[in-house]
């Protein structure tokens, strides 16, 4: 029923990455522009000068763009191999056939967020979405949680590295509370801020409060939820035909935790998914069984049937 598989997924994804993004969250326009360069001239994405010209960015941002492309699951770049777009990148960003080449649909941002939180092994995402039950937390407390997470992984990191990683996480999802002092690019922010998952509020002198929001979300479409559901299913237990509601609500990488859905909102989305695609899903919600059953041959076939990868 997947509870054991969920535990195995948590073991495989320990959230051990604290760096690589440099000092920049992902910015508007970076992903589509970099994808375009990757498709046209794969070898150019390893050349700092060509990336700078194509994206109109400074040299200090180039490593960051490459990092985010891989963290979002949009690019594979391994030694002795030519950099390549992933099937997900082509499905999403291709100029001719892509679902959303310019990332104008908020549903695309939900998919990118899910991949970042559940698959990229980033420490702050791991702690904030899968270990932190609080809806509100002081920034310094969240920093302490992140430092303890580093210790639990036997990571010997400087305080500045952990602090910068937390700042990148926060600026990915929340606008700066000191927006009037921010640069133009900082005020534009990260596209994932549109999701409204977090906000930063002053909390007394030299204190900041991080507020995490919970669904239901009016801007989370049923189609997007189904894609996240199938992504999670494929990642956690691709060979299982049944998944418990408990796993979907509280399992590592689950839609419930990653999309910040309360139990009622999750159950409603699952019921709606079953009503929309009775050929793919069946919901059992009784005292004896609370689970979703996949009626398709396998999860890969189900993803194809909903026009996904």
Task: Explain this structure.
- Pfam families: DUF4007.
- This is DUF4007 domain-containing protein.
- This protein is mainly alpha-helical.
- Among the domains are: 73 residues, Arc Repressor Mutant, subunit A (Orthogonal Bundle); 84 residues, Arc Repressor Mutant, subunit A (Orthogonal Bundle), CATH 1.10.10.
- 49% of the residues lie in helices and 10% in strands.
- It has 15 helices and 8 strands.
- Helix 11 packs across helix 14.
- The longest helix is centred in the middle third of the chain and has 15 residues.
Silhouette: globular
Strand count, sense and closure of the main sheet? 3 strands, antiparallel
What is the name of the CATH architecture of the domain at 222-305? Orthogonal Bundle
Count all strands and give the number.
8
Strand content: 5-15%
CATH class of the domain at 222-305: Mainly Alpha
Derived from helix and strand composition plus strand pairing, the structural class reads mainly alpha
How confident is the prediction overall: mean pLDDT?
93
Portion of residues in helices? 40-55%
CATH fold label of the domain at 222-305 = Arc Repressor Mutant, subunit A
**Oligomeric state of the chains?**
single chain
Radius of gyration: 20 Å
Widest beta sheet: strand line-up: 3-5-4
Give the termini distance in whole angstroms: 24 Å
Please work out how many helical segments DSSP would assign: 15
Low-confidence stretches: none
Protein name: DUF4007 domain-containing protein
Domain DUF4007: 18-297
InterPro entries: DUF4007 (IPR025248)
Pfam families: DUF4007 (PF13182)
């Amino acid at each position: 029923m997947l509870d054991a598989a969920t535990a195995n997924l948590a073991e495989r994804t320990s959230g051990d990455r604290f760096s690589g993004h440099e000092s920049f969250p992902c910015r508007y326009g970076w992903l589509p522009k970099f994808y375009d360069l990757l498709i046209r001239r794969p070898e150019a994405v390893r050349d700092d000068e060509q990336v700078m010209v194509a994206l109109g960015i400074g040299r200090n941002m180039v490593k960051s763009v490459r990092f985010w492309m891989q963290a979002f699951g949009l690019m594979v770049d391994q030694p002795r191999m030519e950099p390549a777009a992933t099937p997900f990148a082509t499905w999403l960003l291709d100029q001719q056939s892509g679902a959303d080449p310019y990332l104008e649909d908020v549903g695309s941002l939900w998919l990118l967020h899910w991949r970042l939180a559940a698959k990229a092994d980033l420490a702050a995402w791991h702690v904030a979405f899968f270990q932190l039950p609080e809806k509100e937390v002081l920034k310094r407390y969240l920093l302490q949680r992140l430092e303890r997470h580093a210790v639990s992984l036997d990571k010997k990191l400087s305080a500045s590295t952990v602090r910068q990683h937390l700042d990148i996480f926060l600026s990915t999802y929340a606008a700066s509370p000191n927006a009037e002092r921010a640069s133009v690019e900082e005020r534009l922010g990260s596209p994932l801020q549109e999701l409204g998952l977090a906000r930063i509020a002053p909390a007394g002198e030299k204190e900041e409060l991080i507020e995490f929001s919970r669904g239901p979300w009016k801007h989370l479409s049923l189609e997007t939820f189904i894609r996240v559901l199938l992504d999670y299913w494929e990642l956690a237990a691709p060979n299982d035909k049944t998944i418990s509601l408990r796993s979907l609500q509280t399992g590592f990488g689950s839609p419930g935790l990653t999309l910040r859905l309360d139990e009622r909102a999750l159950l409603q989305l699952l019921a709606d998914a079953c009503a929309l695609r009775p050929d793919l899903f069946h919901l059992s919600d009784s005292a004896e069984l609370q689970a979703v059953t996949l009626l398709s041959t396998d999860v890969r076939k189900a993803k194809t049937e909903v026009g996904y990868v």
